[in-house]
Amino acid sequence: xxxxxxxxxxxxxxxxxxxxxxxxxxxxxxxxxxxxxxxxxxxxxxxxxxxxxxxxxxxxxxxxxxxxxxxxxxxxxxxxxxxxxxxxxxxxxxxxxxxxxxxxxxxxxxxxxxxxxxxxxxxxxxxxxxxxxxxxxxxxxxxxxxxxxxxxxxxxxx
Length: 158
Hints:
Blueprint: H1 3-6, E1 9-10, H2 31-44, E2 48-53, E3 61-68, E4 71-78, E5 83-87, E6 90-91, E7 94-95, E8 98-99, H3 106-109, E9 114-115, H4 118-121, E10 128-129, H5 135-144, H6 149-153
Parallel strand pairs: 1-10, 5-9
Antiparallel strand pairs: 2-3, 3-4, 4-5, 5-8, 6-7
């Protein structure tokens, strides 16, 4: 496998939700823009936004439920980067599984967010550029048995 094929995603600072005070505060995803994008997506899905739960510590993401013609969808929005994922549902320590984005996810992309596919989110860390991760982040990854990009991005580590 070539280097270009093996490195599918470059983690930026703050991807895990951890930061070093000397680096300054992490960026914040615009929650209002996320809500607006959700409602546009729900209209495209022929449905509605059922609920939106703002990020609470230690979770690294906001979570929402959209119900449409194709059923119920859990939508995750990273708290520090404008990334969107579709999941089977959140649980106490992170996300239980990632889903292929529905057709109406384009409405979210059109609002300035990057929709991450299930194939990327389930990619092993060996296929991710993890050079920005600190020793503390690697301790968390090992402690929680994290093996995929999605588990790194959408977590609830403490």
